[in-house]
Write a structure and sequence with these properties.
By secondary structure, this protein is an alpha/beta fold. It has two domains: about 240 residues, Aspartate Aminotransferase, domain 2 (3-Layer(aba) Sandwich), CATH 3.40.640; about 120 residues, Aspartate Aminotransferase, domain 1, CATH 3.90.1150. About 40% of the residues lie in helices and about 15% in strands. It is built from 14 helices and 15 strands. The strands form four sheets. A seven-stranded mixed sheet has the order 2-10-9-8-5-3-4, with helices on both faces. The chain has a four-stranded antiparallel sheet with strand order 11-12-15-14, covered by helices on one side. A two-stranded parallel ribbon has the order 1-13. The radius of gyration is 22 Å and the shape is globular. The relative contact order is 0.16. The mean pLDDT is about 95. Bound molecules: pyridoxal-5'-phosphate. The site of pyridoxal-5'-phosphate has 12 residues, from helix 3.
Length: about 375
């Protein structure tokens, strides 16, 4: 049976992206690669509204986070980590592993990080060198207002602001330069609609200066070492890049930089959640202004949702379950790729059927049809 991915990474890739990925390989030392790289950088500049270049690692998103931690934290660096879920916790753990002194602030799952929470924590920890934030917390479907958070920071000693944008970039506005962010990490397989395998890092001018004066605890993820080769007129990667994924990213960037793309993601998420609520599901994120446009987390008022998740999978639709303490309690449906009315109605219909089959014998019309498909009909 055909399977439809609704997971928040990987996301289904378009035909155009798959065809681009299948292109003939080129050598990664030479003019062809430089041209490809500069074309991607130009599109990323447009997407991030930044003049700076981005470093692209053959790694997953965690590698991009590790790179930020390796270049900007370490022994003696005072880090304030504000987390509202599993990925915020992970960023903190990576910085901890690199030897930084960590102060953690935790926001409960499903709630967003407010500018006030962060500003108060910074005032209470006035020696903070580095602030770790998550833009879109994928484990709960929370979108944090990074622009407002950064602009509410005390101006007199602004820490270096490092943001996990692994599941926001490409699907929702993320403008690090305009917002005063210093380091942004992202990855290919979520909002950027590319197969897994690329980790991307963007830095502010201030962050590049800071990195230049600091020894990095990693050879592979050393951003200054990368910059030496990437900031040439004819850029090349210091190490072998996965060229096929660059082809795919180049093609996918045309989709996510098209006019109206962010608005259609928002519309898809809001439409889907409205339908799910009408079916009796409860969005984990109660406050609408914190709801992600890329991934929506749903629970069932009477507890366990895993039967619904199981039924969806049996019907060929692949949602993501809950992680950690939310396992069995929530289901997550992604809207990163080009989902519009056909896919939304498909998913809502399947949810309706799944609710029926969780209470087998409810006799709803989709259940009746699915019973024929499965050979269960009498
Ligand atoms: C997916 C994700 C990560 C981890 O990315 P990998 O590519 O799985 O390493 C980190 N942070 C956030 C917010 C994510 O959604």
């Amino acid at each position: 049976m055909k399977r439809y991915l609704f997971t928040p990474g990987p996301v289904p890739t378009s035909r155009g992206v798959s065809l681009a990925e299948a292109g003939e390989l080129i050598a990664h030392r030479g003019a062809d690669f430089s041209e490809l790289f500069l074309r991607i950088e130009k599109k990323l500049s447009l997407l991030l509204r930044s003049s700076g270049r981005t470093v692209i690692f053959p790694s997953s998103g965690t590698g991009a986070l590790e790179s930020l931690a390796a270049n900007f934290t370490g022994p003696g660096v005072r880090v304030l980590s504000v987390s509202c879920g599993i990925f915020g916790d992970r960023f903190r753990e990576i910085a901890d592993l690199h030897g930084a002194s960590i102060t953690g602030v935790d926001v409960p799952p499903g709630e967003g990080v407010t500018p006030q929470i962060v500003a108060e924590a910074i005032v209470a920890n006035s020696g903070t060198d580095v602030l770790l934030l998550t833009h879109n917390e994928t484990s709960t479907g929370v979108l944090n207002p990074i622009e407002e958070i950064v602009s509410a920071l005390p101006k007199w000693k602004k820490p270096l602001v490092l943001v996990d944008g692994v599941s926001s970039v490409g699907a929702m506005p993320c403008y690090p330069e305009e917002w005063g962010v210093d380091g942004l990490a992202t990855a290919s397989q979520k909002g950027l609609l590319t197969p897994p395998g690329l980790g991307l890092v963007w830095l502010s001018e201030r962050a590049w200066e800071r990195a230049a004066g600091k020894k990095c605890g990693s050879y592979y993820f050393d951003l200054v070492r990368q910059k030496k080769d990437l900031y040439k007129d004819a850029p090349e990667n210091p190490y072998t890049p996965p060229v096929s994924l660059y082809y795919a990213l180049d093609a996918a960037l045309d989709t996510v930089t098209a006019d109206g793309w962010f608005a259609t993601r928002r519309r898809a998420a809001d439409t889907f959640v409205a339908g799910a609520e009408a079916l009796g599901f409860k969005p984990l994120v109660a406050d609408k202004k914190f709801r992600s446009a890329g991934v929506s987390a749903l629970s069932l008022p009477n507890g366990d949702i895993s039967d619904v998740t199981k039924s969806l999978r049996a019907m060929g639709l692949e949602p993501a379950g809950g992680q950690g303490a939310l396992r069995g309690k929530i289901m997550r449906i992604a809207h990163y790729h080009d989902v519009s009315w056909p896919e939304i109605s498909l998913m809502l219909g399947a949810l309706y059927a799944a609710l029926g089959s969780a209470r087998r014998g409810s006799g709803n019309f989709i259940e009746a049809a699915f019973d024929v498909w499965e050979g269960l009909a009498k």
